[in-house]
Design a protein that fits this description.
- The protein is of the alpha/beta class.
- It has 19 helices and 11 strands.
- The strands form 2 sheets. It has a 6-stranded mixed sheet with strand order 1-2-11-10-8-9, with helices on both faces. A 5-stranded parallel sheet has the order 4-3-5-6-7, sandwiched between helices.
- Strand 1 and strand 2 form a beta hairpin.
- Helix 1 runs antiparallel to helix 2 (53-65) and helix 11 crosses helix 17 (453-474).
- Bound molecules: 6-O-phosphono-beta-D-fructofuranose.
- 6-O-phosphono-beta-D-fructofuranose binds at residues 131-134, 183-185, 188, 191, 243-244, 329, 481, 484.
Amino acid sequence: MSNEIFCRTPLDKMPEWAQFTQATQQANVKSDHLRILNAAGLSIDLSTQRHSQELDQAGETLLQARNFTQARQALFNGTKINTTENRAAWHTMLREPRPLPEVAHEYRRMLEFVRRTDSERRWRNIVHIGIGGSDWGVRLLTSAFGYTHMWRNIRFVANVDGHAIESGLAGLDPKETLVVVATKSFTTAETMANAQRALDWLKAGNVRNPFNQIIGITANPENARAWGIPDHNLFRFWDWVGGRFSLWSSVGVAAGLTVGTPVLAGLISGAHAMDQHFLNAPFAENAPVQLALAGIGNRSVLEYGSHNIAVYDSRLSQLVPYLQQLIMESLGKSVDHYGEPINVPTGPVVWGMPGTDAQHTFFQWLHQGSDGAPIDFIVCQEADHQWPSHHRKLLAHCLAQRQALWTGKSIETAYQENLADGKSEAEARLLAKHRALPGGRPSTLIVMPRLTPFALGALLALYEHKVFVQGLVWGLNPFDQWGVELGKQLAGNIEKEINGDSTQAKLHDSSTAHWINTFRNNHAS
Ligand code: F6P
């Protein structure tokens, strides 16, 4: 057990935390300096986050007190740092240039599968079935790199809502369709229900051997075999790869079939470059560390309840849900490794939408709402389309929003503008209060040179390591997700009751019992 790595003292009882808190509160809100870090080809501009020498020092001291160096080493060594599940969280191994033999073997098998399939020009359509970490990453890759054209169609089916599988299969020729079932556990209710529907659909489509058209990607090959998938169509990964960290494994096979395996290779090498940066860069220049500290200051000291992701690239529309799972499933916890309550606010709500759409949806709230939220602006320096003026506009909007949030607009400036617009003095004074922006709202600007697989891999690993550091400081386990279990368990029982088992009223609150009865009666009629 690696519990000894994790500090037993609750964060709020540590003098280093008190120091960090004080330094955050005293740091300049509107400092006018440049602080840009470079990591694996990304530029990370933290100039509009609170900063001071004292804060830098306090952050470093806090990390040392939380055994940062030892914990980071344990992550990369494959030590069992996921203490509640007694496993490693060794996704970095999947990005090693010389990984474990079994990792290299599965990777080669996947490449060979895609090569053979491509050379035979097989499968016009891919139906990717999986949910959460077995879904978001593949969606992200296909929208990031297949936005203009993919020679195969890909459909994603995650939700157990029957409309999802219905639309996922609609209009496809079963004989031309490969079904990819991605599930680490091979027990997830939604995925199993959808996989069964797809199997039935292949059978109904007179496919002679439907299991030749289904591939499974899982860490539970026994279950996959028992369900019917033959070994040659099974790709495996390992229990030491968390679902939300599994894009680096054969979970990416559907992306390999649609946007090409060079995308997977580039992604992995970008992530590895970020791993090396995280391992080797000194504290003050270490991008995941500095992002994590800024995030902790914003969440636990300044008490911002949420964190916004404004990605100024429409190809990355799937980045928000990907990061929502990564951050919220990892950091949405309130007890530490030892089961003690963490007495400071932990992981924020993560939300967002691509810019510029977001500007016309919720940016009003970000500029003038009572709470505000720190924002990650993400943008590419170069675009890949043929309209440079569009890209210049996009860049301008991104920078403008960030500046408006930081510098704001004073009532006096707004008043003068109103007078210049010809308003009466009284009108100008009143309107000025509505037009003023408080400013001082923190953000981080992350610039990728252009959207390459390498840059995206580096970006995703940047967030992974940021989450790791935050989990360490808060003292929680970022690699488990026990909170989702109760709902799964209840759903199994409630489904039986809706299907006709008598309602076990004592197991439910009265409202749930009422609706179980209503839905059962509806269902029966
Ligand atoms: O939501 C819980 C969860 O276990 C996620 O962590 C995971 O990514 C998802 O369900 C899917 O799990 P599986 O890959 O085992 O089907």
